[in-house]
Amino acid sequence: MPAATAAAATKTVEVKRARPRGWNPGGAPAAAxxxxxxxxxxxxxxxxxxxxxxxxxxAGPILRYEDRLKLLRQAEKLGVGRFEANLVIxxxxxxxxxxxxxxxxxxxxxxxxxxxxxxxxxxxxxxxxGVWWLLRA
Length: 137
Hints:
Blueprint: H1 3-10, H2 39-57, H3 65-78, H4 82-95, H5 111-136
């Protein structure tokens, strides 16, 4: 057996093993490990960043449709879904006091009863006219 082949046969392979968190080869204690970012945490961070962007881009009491579309495109770039982006926009608008106000229909008072009472009177009149016509014959 040639010498090169014998050296290759006796060569050991160094295997690297996974090291536990906080392991420090120098022996000094490692700094506290940072918690890993979970998908939920990343989603919350993206939503918070998008909310900050919405607050910064508001100019005036009305959010125009084209501005909303720009915000939705920005949310898509941040990885925030369209539904959640609309919720964030609504929440920011509400916080800023720019939410939609409900406009109630004006109180009709007595005029609201005039139409139903008039319709009832007409129907009763037609019924009485029909009965009179039947009894007359």
